[in-house]
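Thread: Cytochrome c oxidase assembly protein, structure

OP (GT): Posting the sequence first so everyone is looking at the same thing. Length is 274 residues per the record. Can we get the structure tokens written out before standup tomorrow? I want them in the notebook alongside the other entries.
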Amino acid sequence: MTPGHGHPGPAGGAGLLFAAAALLAVVAYLSAAVRLRRRGDAWPWRRDASFAAGGAVLVSAFLVPLPGGPFTAHTVHHLLTGMAAPLLLVLGRPLTLVLRALPPGHGRRGLLAVAHSRPAALLVLPPVAALLDFGGLWLIHRTPLFAAAQDRPLLHAAVQVHVVAAGLLFAFAVCRLDPVRRGGGGTAVRGAALLAGGTAHAVLAKGLYADGPPGTAFSPADLHAGARLMYYGGDLAELALALVLAVQWYTSTGRAWARRGRLRPAPGPVPPGG
């Protein structure tokens, strides 16, 4: 078995590229938000803060030395790049911002066409997004892929791209904050996908506590610490997603009740003696 190592450290060239991409995304987002406000449009500052925080999490994950042994550091990296950062970025509603910032024309119509296309609708279908996200995690940790990626920089970079992209896709599918094609993403479906994904993540963490990824040789203490962190850290991330879903359900239900109240006919005069 090869020596266990899970995170290449902040000096990797791929890490620098990922961090630079995250930083550029934040700069572009904030520039678009400023442009929107200068023309008199409202854009909540909390969305700026959320997206910037998500970018900062990604930059830190790829550039700052992570705590713990190799597998624990890998788990921290996974939780930051695949769960925490995606949720923060999605809460910033980047697609909505781009659509509002773009002037009317081919660019805006093209982006809307992509967002409302059948392939996009399939990708953001919660069960599909959950399969790509958590199924990918099982593939990484329960096959020789994890060990193989450690000595192959391109493969390791591809795995990192998948973790971030799949995490973004799942957070996007569960939250449904940006305008995409409707259908198949009701509250019940999103909640069920979140529950199934969280269960798969917890079972994976429990399995890794007993047996590390194939082809690796992490110390028992490091493996146990990383698996516990994966289990409880995943619970926290999934709880945050559940909170977003609950707030959306509460808000939509309240609006529906308000509409029904407005449409209900006013009571007529009470007849004499009635």
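GT: Both are above now. Quick notes for whoever picks this up: Residues 19 and 59 are 4 Å apart (CA to CA). The two ends are 88 Å apart (CA to CA).
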